[in-house]
Design the sequence.
């Protein structure tokens, strides 16, 4: 792709549609559903910084139910437009003093 991403999967009328994998220049990888070039539906993202998300996506944002593990936190619950929103469980990594 012109922006350095690498996509492997299904196309429809020249757009990413169906199941596929996309590798980003920063080392992050997404595997899941695409609709009209957007991450949309069920999918998982392994982030270059060690974070991980599995759940629902809408127009390239986490949306709906999912699990997010990132920077010492664990969240399971509802997300809206990529942010925790609604019911969920949030756990922080215990610090050692």
Sequence:
């Amino acid at each position: 792709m012109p922006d350095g991403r690498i996509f492997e999967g299904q196309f429809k009328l020249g757009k990413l549609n169906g199941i596929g994998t996309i590798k980003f220049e920063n080392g992050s990888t997404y595997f899941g559903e695409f609709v009209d070039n957007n991450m949309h539906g069920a999918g998982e993202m392994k982030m270059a910084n060690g974070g991980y998300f599995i759940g629902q996506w809408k127009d390239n944002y986490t949306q709906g139910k999912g699990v997010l593990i990132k920077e010492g936190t664990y969240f399971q619950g509802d997300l809206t437009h990529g942010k925790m929103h609604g019911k969920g469980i949030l756990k922080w990594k215990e610090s050692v003093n």
Summary: The chain has one domain: 6-92.
